[in-house]
Amino acid sequence: TKRRADGTLIRPKSYIWGKLNIQSFVDALTKQGITDIKVESTGEDGSIIHLSNDDTLIQVESDSTHIICEGEEAVRTKLRDTLLKCLHKL
Amino acid sequence: LVMKGSKLQLIDAADALQDFGLAEHQLRFTSTLAFDEEGPTTETADKIYQLVKSQLKDFPTHYSSDGSITISDSVLVQVSGDEESKSVLVSWSYQDEDVGSYLLQLLKSELVT
Questions:
Q1: Reported pTM
Q2: CA distance B98 to chain A (A)
């Protein structure tokens, strides 16, 4: 393990790339048992996905996704893993 | 490891993505904890900072004058509220998923009763 001069860790960075296909993501969420999914378009490449039952908002842009989850940690990890399956990792 | 012409080259992952014209996708998480705690928000922020310093020793931590705390590269903690109730926002990028999720659970068990 590499460390900085102050003793803190230097960690290898992992990269995620690609553009999220909203429909594929919504289909994948439905398969994971997530219900009450509402998609709102916010411009050319942007969308907000509302998951009312799970107290969550997902803001999607062409090169970023922000998962704002006020629900259970299990919900957040499920959303994370489902999203990662719809993108590419390096 | 990429092939350039007939040569194999070891290049940085960020450079490789750029070379292939692939845009990095930023993934960020934000969760907020709400709980009742009497006293000023700065007191709650101080308590969280001390907890972070003792539990996440391996990661660089910075306490700003506005009361927000940053840990590692991307983890942000912000306390807001009034004399009686507080909310703590915890936000992190996927790069710091292990630190962010650990911190959220830690704060949940320490602050929310």
A1: 0.88
A2: 11
